[in-house]
Design brief:
homodimer; about 200 residues; alpha/beta; Helicase, Ruva Protein, domain 3; Dna Topoisomerase Vi A Subunit, Chain: A, domain 2; four-stranded parallel sheet; two-stranded antiparallel ribbon; 8 helices
Chain lengths: ~200, ~200
């Protein structure tokens, strides 16, 4: 009979391989590492895993990560509550926060993908429509990814919100700062030229 | 104030980034994935983690993974108990099991690395010396990695066991099967030529 690892080790390797970005080799490497790791360190990881399941949920209003019913952004009265920035995933919120945007968010938790057959039911839109219908929203900024799916999703949302008296904008596509014109792809260049702006010199 | 993720999420990302082969990006990706994962699946991972800490230890005789004081290999009376194959890590045992070797093992749990300043105290040798001294061992096969450290370790062990009436061998270095002579490195070629064997035709 060919030898194999003891069952508990096989079980951990299998559980680890189900995680995104972890192949069978990395799963093994992590499992071997954890066997040698002090019990306390594994305990910290276990506590952290249980922590997210017990404490982390999605904000009832915008869908960002939250420890209570409302996330820290939606509860922050110092922010501009008349602008909503729509993003695909919760992690996109932190990316947008690096800009000077200080309004509110709406997280879609998905994207419409005509190619993969993912329709409008894949994105959480009801809450956004509700917020816009309720009023007090002046502008909805669509910040989906600059991909085929992201553009399709943005277009769908724009059509859906057309009936409301609200400004609907989309963040600009163009050459990234620090990028190189020589190595820019065609699609980006096309968008960069289409989105060209007048330079006002005085 | 710049926004960040809720504390439990930050804690999990940090715990995950300590694992080998997991960078900050992968740690985030796994954490975001786990937030959306059903509680049961995270429960399975937690149980698996606790399982290895509660159930997996190292065999008292050879150092391979084990659920009891002795591993399944050392307890197997059907194996050749007169040959010990010395490997660097527990996972090397399974690699050697792919060959036709059916003797016993000794896992060093480390390697002597002159370059990194890791001396003989880095390898678990006492138990091997004890087993060889006790007798009944006819041959010790050194199967450390074909690297500078592996060779240094093998040499050190060979010297240490010289005093005992035991045959000490080292697995062959040479061209890997399916490899290409054209792309073989110099060191491998040198070893392949040094280890050349007479072809006995009849």
């Amino acid at each position: 009979m060919a030898q194999s690892y003891p069952d508990p080790l096989v079980r951990l390797i299998s559980a680890l391989s189900h995680l995104p970005g972890i192949g069978p080799k990395t799963a093994q490497r992590i499992a071997f590492y954890l066997v040698k790791t002090p019990r306390e360190e594994v305990g910290e990881l276990v506590a952290a895993l249980e922590g997210i399941k017990q404490k982390i949920r999605f904000c009832q209003v915008c869908g960002f990560y939250s420890e209570g019913p409302l996330c820290t952004i939606c509860s922050d009265q110092g922010r501009d509550r008349s602008v909503i920035c729509v993003v695909e995933q919760p992690q996109d919120v932190l990316a947008v926060e690096k800009s000077s945007f200080r309004g509110l968010y709406h997280v879609l938790h998905g994207v419409i993908s005509p190619l993969l057959g993912a329709g409008p039911e894949e994105v959480a839109l009801d809450q956004l429509v509700f917020r816009v219908r309720e009023g007090n929203i002046k502008e909805v900024i669509l910040a989906t990814n600059p991909s085929v799916d992201g553009e399709a999703t943005a277009l769908f949302i724009a059509r859906k919100l057309k009936v409301f008296p609200v400004r609907i904008t989309m963040i600009a596509r163009g050459l990234p700062l620090g990028g190189d014109l020589e190595f820019a792809d065609e699609a980006t260049l096309l968008q960069a030229f289409e989105g060209r702006r007048e330079l006002h010199l005085d």
